[in-house]
Automatic annotation (TrEMBL):
It comes from the Bacteria. Binds 1 zinc ion per subunit. Residues 272-302 form a coiled coil. This is Histidinol dehydrogenase. It catalyses: L-histidinol + 2 NAD(+) + H2O = L-histidine + 2 NADH + 3 H(+). The lineage of its organism: Bacteria, Pseudomonadati, Pseudomonadota, Gammaproteobacteria, Aeromonadales.
Length: 433
């Protein structure tokens, strides 16, 4: 990893240092994805099969898995993996079940009742990445909240060949339909529907740059579908001081670097000594990894930033807005109030990001590309819509009438005013009797 001195960089160099690699070829990706999305919308299954053959090298078989295929995949999943999936399931379900909000009902003034209710989003589509690794954990992160929210139809897709454990986890979570398709074409199919694929109202899930761009495009089209967030190539930023264990820091950086060559990992530390030790550790540990080449590629666009102190480390992290932020300092919780804009924060030496990726209970679907400045980690609320209800008594209307008619006058909206005065006339004539 390239070691850079923050103090020596000008504003442009600082911006460049914090730029994600996946963003550099975005114009090309936008145009490729736009063509894919338009063709799926207008040609349906025919285009879906064509792109599946082109990008995933599969040209036959059903897009939707049959009951027999699902049963066979579940039988092939090993008992050890089933037990691990169940353990993770329990923690993720516990954390998301606790996010249920009770409806709100109160009188803002006498006779004016205002209520806030929650309703599940009807049809949801889940995208489980499978291009370079079959992310079974993502099934749990996307499908458990969908089921807790009681979405009526939950469909899931993942690129071919879809792994047995993805099918097993989807079944465990009560997913209604499973499709073997991936990339931008899968997102477009779930957004618009095709002859074989059910249309959905909202699409969830992470993916590579093509998947994320497709989500963005379908969400901008009123005929398409809403989306959860831009959840693209994985990122982690580690803030560490000279008390940190360099081997732990290197292991955490590599755990995200191995996701893909477009992953980005960043170390921010006031200690040059630690940065050098981490660098040596990275080399040592890379030799033991099965995905060393992918991780090495990701490290090429990654940085160790030497800053003045932990205060500045927090400021750099806030500017970068990482998907994951790991804090390995003498007093990690003391930094929490200074930290903004991270998708998920991991405090202390004993909290590797891997636990959140798989099984602690928090959701691993998180905003990337700096969207953590405004977007949140995936939660139950994303699978629900809020709506309000109000009911006024005659006395309640009396108490609001002058305010509403005065404001309607100010806006020049006489029909609005009349909807109140016509009722006030009725109330007044009833009372006169
Ligand atoms: N942000 C999060 O919450 C989060 C969570 C999990 C994973 N991730 C990220 O998700 C990503 C998963 O990526 P992946 O590639 O392994 O799987 P993927 O399923 O997202 O993408 C694979 C698909 O990309 C399409 N594709 C491949 N090359 C293409 C090309 N040249 N043109 C058009 N389409 C092409 C193919 O159709 C293929 O099915 C990783 O970057 C990982 O870091 C993010
Ligand atoms: N780190 C990924 C989110 O960026 C999630 C994941 C799944 N499996 C392992 N990790
Ligand atoms: Zn991960």
């Amino acid at each position: 990893m390239q070691i850079v001195q923050w103090a020596n960089l000008n504003a442009e160099q600082r911006r460049e240092t914090l730029t994600r690699p996946a963003m550099s070829n975005s114009a090309e990706i936008t145009s490729i994805v736009s063509n894919i999305v338009n063709r799926i919308r207008t040609e349906g299954d025919r285009a879906l099969r064509e792109f599946t053959a082109k990008f995933d090298k599969v040209s036959d078989g059903d897009l939707r898995l049959s009951d027999a295929t699902i049963k066979a995949a579940c039988e092939r999943t090993t008992p050890e993996l089933k037990a691990a999936i169940q353990h993770a399931y329990n923690n993720v379900a516990t954390f998301h079940q606790a996010q249920k909000s009770a409806p709100l009902s109160l009188d803002t003034q006498a006779g004016v009742r205002c209520e806030l209710h929650y309703q599940p989003i009807n049809r949801v589509g889940l995208y489980v990445p499978g291009g370079s690794a079959p992310l079974v954990s993502t099934v749990l992160m996307l499908a458990i909240p969908a089921k807790i929210a009681e979405c009526r139809k939950v469909i899931l897709c993942s690129p071919p060949p879809i792994a047995d454990e993805i099918i097993y986890a989807a079944t465990l979570c009560g997913v209604n339909e499973i499709y073997t398709m991936g990339g931008a074409q899968a997102i477009a199919a779930m957004a618009y529907g095709t002859e074989s694929v059910s249309k959905t109202d909202k699409i969830f899930g992470p993916g590579n740059a093509w998947v994320t761009e497709a989500k963005r495009q379908v969400s901008m089209d009123f005929r398409g579908a809403a989306i959860d967030m831009p959840a693209g190539p994985s990122e982690v930023l580690v803030i560490a001081d000279d008390t940190a264990n360099a081997a732990f820091v290197a292991a955490d950086l590599l755990s995200q670097a191995e996701h893909g060559p477009d992953s980005q990992v960043v170390l921010v530390t006031p200690s040059v000594e630690l940065a050098n030790k981490v660098d040596a550790e990275l080399e040592k540990q890379l030799a033991e990894l099965s995905r060393a080449e992918i991780a090495r590629k990701a490290l090429e666009s990654s940085r160790s930033i030497i800053c003045a102190d932990l205060e500045e480390a927090c400021a750099i992290s806030n500017e970068y807005a990482p998907e994951h932020l790991i804090v390995q300092t003498a007093e990690p919780r003391a930094l929490l109030s200074k930290l903004e804009n991270a998708g998920s924060i991991f405090l202390g030496n004993w909290t590797p990001e891997s636990v959140g990726d798989y099984a602690s209970g928090t959701n691993h679907t998180l905003p990337t590309y700096g969207y953590a400045k405004t977007a949140s980690s995936l939660g139950l609320a994303d699978y629900q819509r809020r709506y309000t209800v109000q009911e006024l008594s005659a006395d309640g209307l009396k108490g609001l009438a002058t305010t509403v008619t005065t404001m309607a006058d100010a806006e020049g909206l006489t029909a609005h005013k009349r909807a109140v005065t016509i009722r006030m006339d009725s109330i007044n004539s009833q009372e006169a009797k």
